[in-house]
Amino acid sequence: MKKSIFCIALTAIAIGYAGATLAQQKPEEVIKYRKSVMTIQSWHMRPMAAMVKGQRPYDADVFAFNAQVIGDTARMKAEAFAPGTDKATDAETRAKPETWSEPEKFKQALDRFQAEAVKLVEASKVGTLDAVRPVFGGVAKACGACHDAYRTK
User: Fold this and answer.
1) What is the mean pLDDT of the chain?
2) N or C: fewer beta carbons within 10 Å in the chain?
3) DSSP of 29-44
4) What pLDDT does 25 receive?
5) Rounded distance, CA 11 to CA 39, Å?
6) Which residues touch 116 (CB under 8 Å, ≥6 apart)?
7) CA 122 from chain center: how many Å?
């Protein structure tokens, strides 16, 4: 439990710090931040996916911790795609130009992911696989939709 509280507090500090500093950063630094957020999310989605698929035993505490990280980092994404970060080479980012040329659609995709992440956090508090399985599917679907539309393969 202490580890969970520490990680949540650390994430909250990072969110506050990021909001204050991203606007002042060079595009390359924002891209590094974006990649870090995506790496963290990928890292925490994997064990939940394995539990939902039955490839790993369901552990309510582990699932809830990972869901909370996804919920916290979901709020970081908007700033991770700051204007000007579309000027990078393909080697630096896999974000498609549509990320910036369709800002309203992209914002809707981010909002949908964040809303699904909030649902996942709440469902994880129930503590059962039956409660989280369909909600996890919504998060995964939101991830995939955004990746399909706004990320090069």
Assistant:
1) 87
2) C
3) HHHHHHHHHHHHHHHH
4) 81
5) 14
6) 135, 138, 139, 141, 142
7) 16
